[in-house]
TrEMBL record:
MF annotations from Gene Ontology: arginine deiminase activity
Residues making up the signal peptide according to the UniProt record: none
The protein's name: N-Dimethylarginine dimethylaminohydrolase
Keywords: Hydrolase
GO-annotated biological processes: L-arginine deiminase pathway
UniProt-listed SUPFAM superfamilies: Pentein
Organism ancestry: Bacteria, Bacillati, Bacillota, Bacilli, Bacillales
UniProt organism field: Alkalicoccus daliensis
Alphabetical list of PANTHER family matching this protein: ARGININE DEIMINASE
Stored Pfam families: DDAH_eukar
Length: 318
């Protein structure tokens, strides 16, 4: 009898049982305190890429080759971003920087394009423009060194940039397709979001005159969305309003396109930092109860991006 019992143990081996805790439940202990399911809750941590040598070769003769709108004074650009970082720190936001970025990638400062952050970690994106591909490697390495989980990397035929998605709340995300996100990329993002509990995906087309959602919509408060109405698709607008979102219609085209007035960052519900030089948009936001801070980003905006493009939110309050 004893020999039979030993034989059974030997055949069956050790009995192992899996832990039944979810990834989200143990993430903070095993990985770190990273979380984002909002564009507006209190901002706690961001990742930036401080402009480096890659900007020093952008001149009046070649800026169009890099899809810039003008030449850039690299040192002035650095000072502008440093001032933005100081505003973050003044609001108790931890600022991290990308390490080891390539020096032949002048658009690398626009981190929102390279990652879409979620409650369980980062979705590493795949840029649409071939000249930008490869930027995401240094970002992924930096995230890994910080302990931010990478839950998906866009692959196959897909391409997707993080600014083509926008959190509305924990269960709702807007995903746009267009010149910077195709269906193959968007479907990968949608599948990953549904896997972590997102129940509603609001799908929309990003119009020809914009490349990312944050060119014509941005959350300024828990239920307030600043939009350029002439680029906002009706079905998307209706779905947002049905979700209880108030649309603040910003129609000053000069401020929208040249001043990038909607490319602001919400520091906490009802408080934003935006590029200076957009008085009409500032007044409109304030009329809707939004507190507005300003900082000069005129040099950086020659890269066709502003503070929202540059700031990867690593942690916001749940």
């Amino acid at each position: 009898m004893e020999n039979k019992s030993l034989k059974q143990v030997k055949v069956q081996g050790e009995r192992w049982f899996p832990a039944e805790t979810t990834f989200a439940e143990e993430m903070k202990e095993l990985w770190g305190d990273w979380y984002c399911d909002s564009e507006v809750t209190k901002l706690r941590s961001v990742l930036l890429h401080r402009p480096g040598k890659e900007l020093e070769g952008i001149t009046e003769e070649n800026f169009s080759e890099y899809r810039f709108r003008g030449a850039i004074d690299a040192e002035k650009a650095r000072k502008e971003q440093d001032a933005l970082a100081d505003i973050y720190r003044e609001h108790n936001v931890e600022v991290h920087y990308v390490k080891g970025q390539r020096e032949d990638k002048p658009n690398a400062m626009f981190l929102r394009d390279l990652v879409f952050m979620t409650p369980e970690g980062a979705i590493i994106c795949r840029p649409a423009i071939p000249a930008r591909r490869g930027e995401e490697k240094a970002v992924a390495q930096t995230l890994a060194s910080l302990g931010v989980p990478i839950i998906k990397t866009i692959n196959g035929e897909g391409f997707f940039e993080g600014a083509c998605a926008m959190w509305v709340n924990r269960e709702t995300v807007v995903i746009g397709t267009g010149s910077r996100a195709n269906e193959a990329g968007a479907s990968q993002v949608e599948a990953e979001l549904r896997n972590i509990g997102v129940k509603k995906i609001i799908k929309t087309q990003i119009p020809y005159g914009s490349i990312h959602l944050d060119g014509y919509m941005n959350m300024a408060d828990t239920n307030k969305l600043a939009v350029f109405p002439w680029h906002l698709a009706y079905d998307c607008a209706k779905a947002l309003m049905d979700a209880g979102i108030e649309l603040i219609e910003v129609t000053d085209i000069q401020e929208l396109k040249e001043g990038m007035a909607l490319n602001f960052v919400t520091l906490e519900p009802g408080k934003v930092v935006m590029p200076s030089g957009n008085p009409n948009t500032k007044k409109l936001l304030e009329a809707h109860g939004i507190e507005v801070l300003e900082t000069e980003l005129g040099e950086l905006m020659n890269g066709w991006g502003s503070m929202h493009c540059m700031s990867l939110f690593l942690k916001r309050d749940a």
